[in-house]
Amino acid sequence: MSKTVPVLIASLVGCLMIVAYFSPPLLPARQIAEDWFTIVATIAMLLGGANLCLHHVKKISDQEAGWGFSAVTLLSFFITIAVGILKVGVVPESEQQVKFAWSGPFQQEGSGFWWIYQYLFSPIVSTMFALLAFYVASAAFRAFRAKNVEAILLLVTALIVLVGQTRDREITSMFLPPPAEGVPTFIPIAFVTNFIRETFVTAGQRAIMIGIALGVVATSLRILLGLDRSYLGGDE
Amino acid sequence: MTSRLLDKLNMLDRRWIFLAMAMAVLAPILLQIGSDETPSPPTIKLFDEIERLPEGSRILMAMDFDPTSAAELYPMALAFTRHCGVRRHKLFFVTIWPTGKPMIESTIKGVIQADFGSGDRPYVYGVDYVNLGYLAGDAVAISQMSSDIRKARPQDARGTNLDQLPIMTGVTSVKDMALIVNASAGFPGGKEWVQYAATPQNIPIAVGCTGVQSTQLFPYYPDQLLGLVTGIRGAIEYETMLAAKYPNPYADRSKRPAFLRGGAQRWAHRLMIGLIVLGNGIHLANRYRRTLHP
User: Fold this and answer.
1) Phi and psi dihedrals of B159, rounded to 5?
2) Distance (Å, rounded) from C-alpha A31 to C-alpha B156?
């Protein structure tokens, strides 16, 4: 029973979404299902938050390696939630809002949450992403080497695409005769780059996308028919 | 002598590579060295579509990115918004990324309020543009918007009821938009807008995406995507067209953030190419040495 009801709900809602896609009169029912999705997703987010807390509290209480990071995570988590929920520094900005300090949006410019986003979150995530440039450069020097035929193919393709994506690609047209007036300059490496992208990359990507779509259809059908119950947890 | 140099290169500390990369990026930024680009067809198509639309057309600006990818997408978002502003289109800003709302606010502040907030016909909030804020639910939020915007979001980001905003008159769903312009950093983003709004409702859509995402989106171009602007290169291309068509004030360097970032990217790419060539030169030299002294 504990699993039959969730399976029934999943099957019914799944079928409704498919049928409503092709049948406009069922649109209101689809909208209700979508509202419920948002509600369930919000509850799942709360559960995720609770799970995060339990996981890190356990690490701290067991004094596991790196428990200090868990303490920082929890501290940041609670401070951010408190500042957001209490709307620290928020002022009303719309005529429709009651004139209390906390009646404006929590992400309002100048508020505590905005400050955390602007001066903590934004620089941290930007820095994390910017570090990629350094590691990619190091990896390009140390690991990207022509060790066998496959590696040579990858290396040559990567070099062509890399040069083809930069303005330096125009160097490759220097040795060609100048084009007639009004005719765009032929850039050999840009032509090869486009050929690689339009032929090999797009074809490969389409094959992957079609494969994924077929997999999604098969998995969805198994869920709708109640054959796959792994999403409910346990060993089924 | 050559052998000693090879040994040194084999033992090269990677911190030298980090330093070289830092210099390659820093120097163009400090010296304000930019990089121009020749516009490519996927970028030209979006530019032409925004030009073609009659004044006052409704454009949904979906800003699905956060500070992680703002280096690539924020200049693009600025360029799109500037172009729409020059053409006096009505703009509907929205994001399905929980961390995307400040990106919208920053774009509004940097373009709408700075460039179009004064003068004879200033852009007025609620009349010429609206910030619908963050919509929770990923792809479902897009689906909700394509059937009923008020169901998905009854108020704007400031808490004002949508029915009280003149810009929302006659707007029931995404179907009422003339164009969707999406700045996408991943999931949910361009692909979901195509799958859940643009293709089912037959609405023209153009996407500006990060460089790494372009391979996932190119299969949708040109049938399902009207235009595709990729990475900093795409943003430079767009700025170049904007500067050519509206030189005052968009030829000015201060209005071309992508152009300035392009210089740093160009030198970083040159360094990468140099490092790949050097690394393989060392590899071949090592192999040659091993054949001489097995």
Assistant:
1) 90, 10
2) 20
Token representation of residue A223: 């869920």
3-class state of residue B117 by DSSP: coil
Q: How far, rounded to the nearest angstrom, does the alpha carbon of residue A158 sit from its chain's CA centroid?
A: 25
Residue A95 banded pLDDT, cuts 50, 70, 90: low
Can you give the residue range of the structural domain that contains A207?
144-215
Cβ neighbours of residue B94 under 8 Å, at least 6 residues apart?
A: B60, B61, B62, B63, B104, B132, B133, B135, B145, B153
Helices (H), A108-177: 112-116, 122-142, 149-165
**Greater pLDDT, A149 or A105:** A149
Share of chain A above pLDDT 70, in %: 94
| Phi, psi at B221, each rounded to 5° | -95, 135
How much is the average pLDDT of B108-113? 94
Residue A224 resides in a domain: no
Task: For strands B58-64 and B179-184, give the pairing.
Answer: parallel
In this prediction, residue A99 carries a pLDDT of 66
Considering the domain boundaries, does residue A47 fall inside one? yes
Residues B116 and B99: beta-carbon distance below 8 Å = no
The angle that helices A149-165 and B257-292 make with each other, rounded to 10 degrees, is: 150
Q: Is the ipTM of this complex over 0.90?
A: no
Task: Using the CB atoms, write b or e for A98-121: b if 16+ within 10 Å.
Answer: eeeebbbbbbbeebbbbebbeeeb
CB nearest A137 (choices: B275, B283, B284): B275
Q: What angle do CA B140, B145, B151 make, to 5 degrees?
A: 95
For the segment B21-36, the average pLDDT, to the nearest whole number, is: 94
**Cβ contact B20–A137 (<8 Å):** yes
Which pair of tokens denotes residue B218?
Answer: 């190119």
Same domain, A16 and A55: yes
Higher pLDDT, B157 or B44: B44
**Interface contact B288, partner A, CB < 8 A:** no
> Stretch B127-140: mean pLDDT, rounded?
92
- Number of Cβ within a 10 Å radius of residue B198: 28
Tell me how many domains chain A contains: 3
More confident residue, A184 or B288: B288
CA dist., res. B235 & res. B37, Å (int): 9
For B126, name the nearest residue in chain A, comparing CA atoms only: A94
Q: What is the mean pLDDT of chain A?
A: 89
Of B20, B67, B105, the CB nearest to A126: B67
- Supply the pLDDT for residue B282: 94
B87 forms bridges with which residues in the sheet?
none
| Residue A226 resides in a domain | no
Q: State which residue of chain A sits closest to B149, comparing Cα positions.
A: A31
pLDDT of residue B258: 95
Instruction: Please tell me whether residues A151 and A192 are part of one structural domain.
Output: yes
